[in-house]
Amino acid sequence: MTLANGDGSTFVAYLAQPTVPLTGAVVLIHEIWGLVDHITDIADRLAAEGYLVVAPDLLSRVGIVAHVGLELQEIMFSPDPTVRTEGQPRLRDALAPLQSPAFGLSALESLKKCVDYLADVPEVAGRIAVMGFCFGGSYSFMLAAGDPRIRAAVPFYGQGPGDDAVAETQGKILAFYGATDAALAEKLPALTASMATAGVDFTPVTYEGSGHAFFNDTNPITYQADAAADAWAKSLEFLGRTLA
């Protein structure tokens, strides 16, 4: 489907309708590789559990459409060091626009438009959550802080927000990390303390022996089946309890 931003620009989103009685709604935010099949598969899995899911494409606006995202992922995780080295300029150029404050504001606006869409569905009755992975994990934190309609957030290996954003968060958060994902693991104690100071209901779960992107079953380099299965079960229990 297509949704509109406030400036008249539009963006595409994948819509997954629940295949059992509706129990809530989820904004699902993709990894840094864009709206690829891995994300639409997760949307379908959530729909099978009773959730109405909107998964927006936030990266085609900077040129990362699905096939480009898959090519970039192949470069980053190639077993051939020459491919990784020679591909670095392409990776840097493709991902550089994501560092722009203007991009961040645009992406967050689009996410709020997804919340608008879900909030307008009478059967949803305000039962709205956000789930995201990597890039989407970071934006899950941001949306939870920026939109009080978010009751629950499930960020997977996302960068935590600053103290000001933490203080604005009203919903509950269940966050997943891989213990060997050093960049995030090192910051987790400070984030946990910040959440506690702000009175946010924050539950971090860390999996030993797992790293970044452990849930991505299309990436044999990073995927950890046991951790992914446990995180999925915990996510469903959390969503069911928090959106009840």
Task: Summarize this structure as a short list of keywords or feature phrases.
single chain, 244 residues, alpha/beta, Rossmann fold, eight-stranded mixed sheet
Name of the CATH superfamily:
Alpha/Beta hydrolase fold, catalytic domain
Please outline the major beta sheet: 8 strands, mixed
Structural class: alpha/beta
Give the tally of β-strands: 8
| Overall geometry | globular
Whole-number total of structural domains: 1
Could you say what the CATH architecture is? 3-Layer(aba) Sandwich
Radius of gyration: 17 Å
Percent of residues in helices: 40-55%
Multimer state: single chain
- Which residue ranges are poorly predicted, with pLDDT under 50 across at least 5 consecutive positions? none
Average residue pLDDT: 97
Order of helices and strands: EEEHEHHHEHEHEHHEH
- Tally the helices: 9
| Lateral strand order in the biggest sheet | 1-2-4-3-5-6-7-8
Within the CATH hierarchy, at the fold level, what is the topology?
Rossmann fold
CATH class: Alpha Beta
Report the portion of residues in β strands: 15-25%
Distance between the terminal alpha carbons, to the nearest Å?
27 Å
